[in-house]
Fold these 3 entries.
Entry 1:
Amino acid sequence: MTGKSIEEINRRISEGSAVVVTAEEMKEIVEELGEEKAAKEVDVVTTGTFGAMCSSGVFLNFGHSDPPIKMKRIWLNDVEAYTGIAAVDAYLGVTQISDKLGMEYGGAHVIEDLVRGKEVELKAESYGTDCYPRKEIVTEIALEDLNQAEMVNPRNAYQRYKAATNSSNRILRTYMGTLLPNYGNVTFAGTGEISPLNNDPEYRTIGLGTRIFLCGAEGYVIGEGTQHSPPFGTLMVKGNLKEMDKKYMRAAVFPGYGVTMYIGIGIPIPVLDEEMARFTAVRDRDIETEIIDYAIPRRNRPVVRKVNYEELKSGKVEINGEEVRVSPLSSYSIAREIMIELKKRIEKGEFYLTSPVKRIPTKATFKPMRQKEIVVVRNLMSKAISIPENTTIVEASKIIIDKGVNHLPVVDESNTLKGIVTSWDIAKAVAKGKVERVSEVMTRKVITVYPDDPIELAADKLRKHNISALPVIDAKKKVLGLLSSEDLSRLIVKR
């Protein structure tokens, strides 16, 4: 097997003789020359990604005021930063939202404003000490006023991501964007075959200490990212905010969900041997993921179908025999711009490669949160007393009295939910004296829950719709039970 070292590649970069290609170009080269010849011909493959990376933020040092202050709480343009570090250090996360503007403005906007050269308002409070007597301060700061502004992102550059859709009958606002009802669309994240980790799936050359392109600055990989779970690998990265370019970062708001930041990352992959040539020849059709149904509000959402990035990038996929529109959440064009820019810097001898001092794990288990108990609807629901649509008002009133219930789901002959009547509906019908059947008074647009829905979701539906019971149904609308506010009260008493 052909082999070369990173030192050898760096020597070629310094001599101006290194062969550098983008991830797009490498696919064609390997296809034409084969892995062995491509490994001999090419020294570096540049990769890129540009997408919403919520797990990002910056450490800031403001210097000492006069008299000095030990900041207990701090706000930048009314966005609170974390201060449990030292007197005048803080960490501002991109997803933190403004106290005054809510989701319209957040930590990502503050960071982008600083990089764009704008001043931001710093407001801080303290309890005061002998060495830090000041108790409050309000001032204006710019990026140049800070001693350090270090972007440290716990989880970036997802190798691949699960796509999203929505089987429910309402619009969902999520971190995967707006999902239309009844499988109305699919969204996906990541840039597929040009994304860094997809071009080094064994993490042979990307690890602790790898030099990277981070929002236009020279950054570094500082370890595996949080929730790293190959082949859904992630990276923890850092870089100097003062050296970053506004072209490669962008604050964004996902309606109904919150603030995030688009981060641009490029990583050079050294082609050390034939195996790395094969890795960097990966195609979108080889990168699989799953489309997940976000209508199910659980940690483990059902898989609608498996899919590859070639299908996702085609703009449409098939779900249940229907063609569904697909849209990306990442920008392929800016990711492409990043890998081309990185290629230029390497060719000019402005960017050298580093060997990782420690590899990131190729195997990892992503554990769920440990909880005392998980209560779902099926744990609390009661047996439903259902009636057919042709039940008379008199018969219904007798059932309500005899069974001691207030809600009667109305079903057809196959137990499929058609409506619901309450004791109040029946009382009104009796008072009017002109109504004969429950079909004339029942509510047809019924708010329901599934047996495995979290109890918190059911409680929220009762409150939001100002109702006192929810029929529990399965996927075919068969009635399985009833969850009432009394059932929830029993849970509260038990706790």
Entry 2:
Amino acid sequence: MLAMNYRGPYRVRADERPMPRILHPEDAIVRVTRSCICGSDLHLYHGMVPDTRVGMTFGHEFCGTVEQVGAEVRNLNVGDHVLVPFNIACGKCHFCQQGLFGNCHESNAQATAVGGIYGYSHTAGGYDGGQAQYVRVPYADVGPMVIPDWMDPDDAVLLTDVVPTGYQAAEMGGIQPGDTVVVFGAGPVGLMAARSAWLFGASRVIVIDHVEYRLDFARVFGPAEVYNFREIDDMVVFLKKLTDSLGPDVCIDAVGGDAAGSAIQTLLGTKLKLEAGNAIALHWAINSVKKGGIVSIVGVYGPTGNIIPIGNVVNKGITIRANQASVKRLLPRLIDHIKNGHMNPKAMITHRVPLTDVADAYHIFAAKLDGCIKPVLLPNGL
């Protein structure tokens, strides 16, 4: 079969690989119909995530048709068209029982924090991902969900990560009616966080980025006020002035370690890798949110440390909430929102690319060329 093959930082290609096999009675094999490139895949692509091994196949956002099931799979049948959450979860452990499917204690033997994730380095279990024609899906009775007949597959594939991650960012913000919410990052997760903030009752949503075409998109899709941080001298002072000198009620970091906007953060976190990425968006969030406000983090950082203004967190009485999205827990609500027209995720898809051109797709997405918001790979054609 054809699959994306990581060859080192900034180098990926499509190669012939062995077909995945059933390794456990609870496995399924899925023939992939759509697979997205996620902003967090770019952390892998840029060589920022430890233990990303040459030869790995990325891809944690995918949907497809069940091709084969293990002897103990009861909820799926061959031929079912399913969306597959990026969390690999056993459904039985202490954390899965609390709905914390992103923190499954069984699916990732290599870490005490995050659970297993498809195609996201050996720090997340070492599973191959869905940027391939076929993929092995462990715990097949737990994660995959049969796509409703009425749902567009383009919406379905975005329900595997980007939509629930953006929604959970807003949920963790504890948004109250009338709140002002600032979202750092106008990528797909930031866009969904902005959109979701309205559903929780926000009265004002502001998006910060430096890529003009993404800000233009956020202005309509959010909809949101948008500002380019390249045109602002001091982001914290600017946001205070926008909010009656108090600061926003909620700040959402939807950027993570791949941020721009600070030379010293780029040097320490990106160039020298002395920190787990560039944390400037997190600094802006902590320092601008109002006293007693909430900072919600869904941007991805590496497992090593970052220098952040923890004294300001204490002295301002800020609540910080963060986690990987618990996709399975959120799916029923999100499906209702799509069915009722409150969300239109597929509007973010700008590029459809055959798997053979995966290297070009990564380059276009990483370099933010051609107005790219969200690229989708088509491993088995249209």
Entry 3:
Amino acid sequence: MVTATPETVNGDLSRSVTSREQAKRHRKFVIIGFLVIPLSLMTLFSVYPFLQLIYFSMTDWDGLSPDSNFVGLDNYHSLLVEGRGLLLPMVNSLYYFAGSLMQLALATYFAVILNRGMPGSSMYRLVLFLPFVLNSVAVSIIFRDFLQIGGGIDAVFEVLGLGAFKQQWVQDPDLVKWSLVFASVWRYMGFQLLITYGALQAVPTDQYEAARIEGASEWQQFWYITFPSIKMILGLQIILSTVGSLEVFEVPFLITGGANGTKTFIMAAIEEAFNFRRLGMASAMSMVLIMIVIVVITIQRLFMNRGKNDA
């Protein structure tokens, strides 16, 4: 029988402590190694451009000259106080926000139906999701031709014997904004449908079976089972839709070019930067948009957290 001496025990303890310290240092090196690249990329492509945007918003830089003058908050004063009309395109975001709510309602409706395993549901999912994977430029050009006088939508009305309902879809100032909203809804509804459909897959089916046995109607099943299960996902989609409605660009730009009062805030900022060579003012407009997005997201998060706590 071998008896451990005090020197042997102390040696084992020392080696054990050394081994743990080496493992701890090795773990730190691994963590730092994994963090260096993403943090460097985030600093290079997100933090630094954001700091530059803040600086440019306080200058009168034209975007080309090597020199610029620091003007402090003059651009913000001109934008928010003097009322130059640069904020007016922000009103158009309300149309897209209303459209995004309709889009979310349609996406939820179709997701609930497809989640019931109806025949051909895979094909319907593909058809509804397909517009989202199409190139946005191609979609906008298709709708530009589709909504023209004598275009595709007028031809459909003619075939259906509804020629009296033909309209100037993109020439009439009262209709053009809703026409663009329709194009946007068609383009992005598949994305929201996919997210909602994925959330519905996590709802246990036995709850629906128990509800049917109890005689619950379809609406009661949705309101008391489906909606509570996916309301956080719907809240997230409302946040994304709100941000998206503030940043709409390609659909109105490619279909109308901002004519007939369809210019959005992003289009106005780009116009200031590249047409009028006022990059400082355009940067200030971008900062205002970022602040609005942060405020909107904060308010919505507060409402969502309150609902979560109440539940």
